[in-house]
Amino acid sequence: MSNDFPWLSVLLFLPLVGAVAVMFLPKEGPLAKQVAFGVSLLTLALGIAIAIDYSPDGGTQFTENVEWIKSFGAHYALGVDGVGLTLVMLTVILAPVVILASWNDGDAGRWSPRAFFAWMLALEGLSIGVFAATDVFLFYVFFEATLIPVYFLVGGYGGPNRARAAVKFLLYSLAGGLIMLASVIGLYVESAKTDGGATYLVSELAKIDFGTDVGRWLFLGFFVAFAIKAPMFPVHTWLPDTTENATPGTSVLLVSVLDKIGTFGMIRFCLELFPEASRWATPVVVVLAVISIVYGALMAIGSDNIPRLIAYTSVSHFGFIVLGIFVMNSQGLSGANLYMFNHGLSTAALFLVTGFLISRRGSALISDFGGVEKVAPVLAGFFLVAGLSSLSLPGLSPFVSEFLVIVGAFVHSKVAAAFAVSGIVLAAIYILLMYQRTMTGPTREEVAGLPDLRPREVLALAPVLVLVVVLGFFPKPLLSIINPSVDHTLSKVDKHDPAPTVAESTPEGAHE
Amino acid sequence: MDVTPFIVLSAILFTIGCVGVLTRRNAIVVFMCVELMLNASNLALVTFSRANGNLEGQIAAFFVMVVAAAEVVVGLAIIMTIFRTRRSASVDDASLLKY
Amino acid sequence: MKFTAPHIEYDLVAPILIVLGVAVLGVLIEAAVPRVHRYLVQTVLAAVGIVAAIVAAVLVLNRIHPRAENPKPGFLSAEGALAIDGPTLYAWLLILGLALLGVLLFAERRLEGGVTAFAGQAAALPGTEAEREASAKGLEHTEVFPLLMFAVAGMLMFPAANDLLTLFVALEVLSLPLYLLCGLARRRRLLSQEAALKYFMLGAFSSGFFVYGIALVYGYAGSMRFERIADAVAAGAGSHALLLGGMGLVAVGLLFKVGAAPFHTWTPDVYQGAPTPVTAFMAAATKVAAFGALLRLFYVAFGADRWDWRPMFWVVAILTMVVGSVLALSQTDVKRLLAYSSIAHAGFLLTGFLGARSLGDIHAGDINPVQAVLFYVTTYGLTTMAAFALVTVVRDAGGEATHLSRWAGLGKESPLVAGSFAFLLLGMAGIPLTSGFTGKWAVFASALSANAWPVVIVAVLMSAVAAYFYVRIIVVMFFADPVGDGPTVAVPSIMTSAVIAVGVAATLVLGVFPGPLLDMLGRTAEFIR
Amino acid sequence: MSLTPLHDAAAVPAVHPTDAGSLGVLLLLVIGLPALGAAVLLLGGRRTDKWGHLLGCATVIGSLVLSLVLFFDLLGKDAGERQLTQDTWTWFTAGSYKVTFDLLYDPLSAVFLLLITGVGSLIHVYSVGYMAHDERRRRFFGYLNLFVAAMLVLVLAGDYVGVFLGWEGVGLASYLLIGFWQHKPSAAAAAKKAFVINRVGDIGLSLGAALIFVTFGSTSFTVVSAASEHAGDGVLTAIGLLLLLAACGKSAQFPLQTWLLDAMEGPTPVSALIHAATMVTAGVYLIVRSNFIFSLTEDARTAVIVVGCITLLMGAIIGCAKDDIKKALAGSTMSQIGYMVLAAGLGPAGYAFAIFHLLTHGAFKANMFLGAGSVMHGMDDDVNMRHYGALQKAMPLTFATFAVGYLAIIGVPPFAGFWSKDKIIESAFADNFVVGLCALVGAGVTAFYMSRLMLLTFFTKKRWEKGVHPHESPNVMTWPLIGLAVLSAAGGLLLVNDWIVDWLTPVVGEHAEEHLSVSPLVMSLIALLVVALGVLVAWVFVGQRDVPREAPVKVSFVTRAARAELYGDAFNEEVIVKPGWSGVRGLAVFDRGFVDGIVEGTAASFAGISSRFRLAQNGFVRSYALALLAGAAMVLLALLAVNFS
Known about the structure:
heterotetramer; B: elongated; D: two-stranded antiparallel ribbon
């Protein structure tokens, strides 16, 4: 697979073209769905091929660079390093899963299911673009463009208050995006002052030394947008409202994939472009992250609506991710990067399985369930595994990432770690409380007739959970591509891991 | 020569015109006040033309008059239609478009 | 004394002359040609005239275009009364293009069932026998075409004007026909006439300020020529108070035309009351002309004194954006809402205008303010034109259904119309991959380069606010169910459809590939003096 | 305390294993078999219902055989080379941090392997009979296999994070098994409670591991044991306390003890295997395994001892008041583990005895739980001892085996419990009189409540429910009882010329000689005296009176407290749960009202401003003109202001 062929562009445009194609298929009949599914599978295959061809410590690869808007210094520049590739893979893996899982979710919507799947594919393509863009302008374009599909997916196919939820989502994100726009333009102005002339290439911008003040202002612009996207306390409130009204599939793409843009952006832009400002902001960000962890978990414990609950768990998990990013050491950053992927999987599983549950019962309230385990043991089993992965049980993939983040946080500040670690107890509470109230106890007559999972649903969920287990014991494939990028980031922010306090012990196999 | 008195006069005229526009209801009168403002400007133009010792100002004054005449044509046409439909020339009656 | 005839380079000013000629011819036609043929003749004549003007303009452009042999930045023409340079020519082409689209909208007949959107007989009183029979006879005012052409001629002169007098004359020439056009709506005539009256009254009032400002500036500089004024300003001769007063009052006149707060008060009423085709043309073309003039006057004539006037424009720009965006939130009439949105856009344009800085500070390849403003006004003009054109298509028994509630469920009624309108709205909101985004980017970058960051921050915040009401329309169209019998979408003739198509296409193309246009502007956007 | 080795003094034994070579495969299989069994049974679904239980037993017995092979192989080596490692694969790396799944097989792991697979096998077999009538038996065996696998990982892992894996694995298994009868809300609640409280302990393990990494740059036993001497006292103490917190969670030690009694909601074999013999002793394992930390930090050890003493007394007291036979035994388990923790806290003097007691306890407590299960089996799953009585005739075999366990736990020679507990009491006295006294009193109380249990169950008058016909259990259940009874009786043999001590020396270091003021023999006699006293009291207060079928309400404060498990739950309820819930509810309001309120509020206020200010556009042209004039004035002022400021 030659690296000068624009593989990433193909990967990125395949779903977009697919989306357009789907719109031209007949409204009725399953053809549209089948085609959409096929396209997503094709994308997945290509994605895997790219991942196989990627050489772990080769830096940014599959690079493409075409000048796009000369006077803006904008390029159509793509390329993936470890972090980018991980998230691209997450996207292409989840897309077919989601499409298969939400096979019938489009039918009840405002428009034809055809449109539903077209939007899904469009979203997949744009997300790939976000993670593959190596030009700030291009990134921004994709960043904003992803809002539109989500907007119509939520507004068109969601629950009772979907329109309001969609608007809230769009405006909240747009506000963040526009604040970021100011910084993006600021980048242009600053880069125009350099001899190289205006450019948006990350590789070029990374060389520029913005002064302290300028750097901090620009950093803030980016960070606010990413904090909203992530979402972090206190700008998280759009997420529960959205997931409450969105279909499970939409929620998955939103929380598992799109929200990663926030944390991805923090690494790629906040840390790597504004190292000084990032170090300056670290104390505040770490505090916010810790608050998010605890706050999100507590809110999750308190919520009776399952999608809201999962949304809040994500707030908590994103707290961990951000914490890992801003403690700025190998453990934290590797953990955070890994966390992005694992959280994507576990949350996807959780959203989908609860989605099946909710669609069967016709209610999203925990208090409307009880004793489901007896009538639908398989569903209960999947639910439990998904839940356990969400509370990051050792042996399931999220554990490794969460443990690394905690260790990283501990290296950075023992207090922060001490607070953060309370998250693992709270996680146990919110997950098991939900499981206990929905699945166990005497079976309520409302749920007595619930059918167990259908083969299609099992087929959609199984791969995710298998991946969760496999990566739980063998995360090496991911870490081996993540760690080099982490070292790169650390060198950018000019931070080095502290040596162990007991000098005598240098573990064998250090620095690999 | 000292231009000050002339300019002061033109300023006074201009102000009168302004105030007229703001205070009078009858469209015609309002319109006359606008003309007054224009003529105040003419006075200023001519004065400065004299002070600067070139003719541009005076030529401008002529143009302003011509334009004012054109404005009268258009303006009266509009005011007439309004008057005929509403049977009133009060600018305050025409207030359907608001908020 | 010997009389020397002024020397006029006819080839350079040909576009203006052609348009004027067509206008005069149009008047004659009204007198000569029998009523039945007038519509056709006028339409064709206007269209042909504009195309001819465009051709002439392109010829001139080739002479100043860098690729021409012995390229010049531009020419002074008509004894220096007109400056024909890059910005002028670009403004010309843009105005003529918009005028062509305007003609198409004016000539639309299918929507009103075989007649244009203009009053059958303006003289006939609303709701009287005379009016009824006029419409029964299918009468229509074809004078709108000559009027339009006169206005266009004025608009062509406006950005080219190189002395204050020409500027004033051009201003009046473009305004007076518009006053009349506003009053000629076929339906809702009271509103139409009221719009005309308000526009006229306030227009006249503001031109009063404008003229007085001219007088003061003349008093300060001793000349009306921009270059002389510039010299005087640079030399700092004369009483500074005169200059400031003059500058301020002239600015009032121009800002009124632009529709900047607090001189915006006429905009909502007039845009709402005027016949929609007129609104469309006015909203798009007037801004182009006015900003062309604003740029030339303040960059060429008052450029050396920008430390004095920039703060004032900061205030106006901020005020304009805030007023436009915030007041639009609570609007319920689509035309009125678009009017407020155009106020907000005027604010964004002013933000770009604030990029004024000495050529020394502008590196090669940077976005310069003239380039930014002209680019933005292009994107804005085309998008707005198409948006208003779409408004003419959504109708009910009483003509155009402009109340927002009547648009509920349009997405189901006609996905195409709703979809393209939604796209245009996203463009105005500045979503990437639309021209609105690239435009915003350009003006913000221009302002930020001149350290006008507070204005830029207000601008982004206001963009967020503005996004709300654009999104609100989309929600109404797509996510709300129609009340009673939904709106009907009349199928327009090829002409209106063409306008919409062009607008949508431009919004998309300029959003994805703005490069060529920007580069072209970057090369040509340089004033001569 | 006298026994603390100073840093310069006796170095802690380092973990420097040699490659297991051919044995490595067996090590992997030991874990692999039950893991495979679990996978097959849980994923196989209904297909495996018919033979599932057999597979379950087979895998564990297979592991047992392998464990024996390994054990004797290790026995063959001389003390120096009794540490084997099997490299597997790297779990994860981040920067300089590397965690592997490498297994560590040394004398400590060896005895645990035997305990887990041995008792495990017996209990599997027993369960075949016990769960015969449960339609979800196959799943039950799946869970049991899962537990065994996880427990084996716990004791074979060569890295703290590896231990964590097994640690949470057994936690999960225990969660699933406690809640095995999920349709009972009480069971589901108990399961959740157990898991959550264990998680609290896990905080200790997570932070402990983190601190260990920060200190030593690795969490593998090899590295840490090699470098621990060089670490500062403060750090070591901190690590020790964090690990102690973990141990408290897993081993139901004060203050995290409350989950254990609720855990009795699970099927009895589960209580026997997980909540008596193996899992709950993991905390002790962790402390002993971390001897290279604890031996160097006196303060942490003191904390361990204190926890141990408190718990052993608490458990004993609770055991005295419970009428539910399983809960009584659970209380006893707490108390016995208290002994082990206490012993472990004594450092090199106690590690070996802690493990010794752990092993014997594993045998006799499992024995008694299964016995209790057998009793319940005969009594239609009635657990209330006040409904028992005079069962020794009805089920002689159960009685006999139970009696052996009874004699073992109260410490009557020559049964296993005597040797192990006696050693602990001795060392405790040698270490500190108060500690010794606690241990001694505990022994007395143990004797009391166990005798009470015996009397209520097998002696005194019948108090059976109507229609209950006690009968002996099937062979498949009684054979394991016999097996365990034998172990309970003969467990003391491990102490023959201090075999267990020498065996563990390579792991826990030289057994520091204790100098006791009185001779060991005297000590033992005193202990026996106390025990006899306890039995006597029980005989007088329980055996001699007729027992009411309903628990009397008017009882002393002590009894009430004991019945309420010394208010451990009440405390949590009042101090943590209730405030927690109100806090969460408050937070929900805060989130809606304030955090989101600000956002929504801003939007609303914009709308409000808009709808108010649009009225300024009042339609009167003259007011527009006024605005225009004002604007002109503003412009001029702005210009002048700039110019003349």
